Amino acid sequence: MKRVAAIDCGTNSVRLLISDISDDSGMSDVTRQMRIVRLGEGVDQTGRLAPAAIERTRVALAEYAKDIAEAGVDAARMVATSASRDAENAADFRAMVFDTLGFVPEVITGDEEARLSFAGAVRGLTAEAPFLVVDIGGGSTEFVVGSAEVDAAISVDIGCVRMTERHLRADPPTPDQVAAAEADITAAVDMALAAVDGTRARTLVGLAGSVTTVAALALGLPEYDPKRIHRSTITAADVAKVTAGLLAESAAKRLEHPVMHPGRADVIGAGALILRIIVERSGADSVIASESDILDGIALSLA
């Protein structure tokens, strides 16, 4: 058995998974944690990581460093994605991570991000292949098609934080803002689906907080419950209904939903809109929400 620590640092959140991995029993979680740090705040406009965002991330990573040390892991890997790829001052971020964790983060390509997400998402999945796996992040969305292995992958710069900052600035967003976001997202989704031949997939699988939050709302859960959300099937009609409701609400109103994470309320409308358009343009009649994602893929890569 090998104990590993995986850290996924995205545009909106930084997450930790400590897991025991063995050949016969697979993966067994020791802990999963998430902090909303909004590392990519303002990157779409400025091209730089804000000092305050780097500091928020440092605080979260310092807490994770203690957990990793106490767990006695055999190997650790941190992956940094969209915001860190885009920022002019990414070197400042990498230096902070080294000072905090004692090892450097891997600022991976969108293609590698997509492949890690796919590995985590399809592990043990019994639905009909080929799969179209979509990982809706804060700054980018990854599209991956494959069965046991990846056939094609692409990352495009649409994410819940990026689209909120670019288009959905009012609270709640205006109809014109929603229309502009829809046009932007649709163009990117159509390009991505063509690049990976996404319409040939038999099963659509959605990853990350925007998808799982939409699933929790569609299921009418009284609280966020990963076990009930994981691999639940949400119809296209329910995705559209939840999305319309979220886009009509203010951030304060969204916080009244018991499943809503406080750090997601202001950007969930954009995330839901991305999911709705992916469902529509791919021709899927439903989406499977998965709690297993790039974090699991990072852990598996250490086995």
Automatic annotation (TrEMBL):
Record-annotated Ppx/GppA phosphatase N-terminal domain positions = 18-301
- Give the source's domain of life in one word: Bacteria
Q: Which Pfam families match?
A: Ppx-GppA
The record, for SUPFAM superfamilies, names: Actin-like ATPase domain
Q: What is this protein called?
A: Ppx/GppA phosphatase family protein
Q: Which organism is it from?
A: Dactylosporangium salmoneum
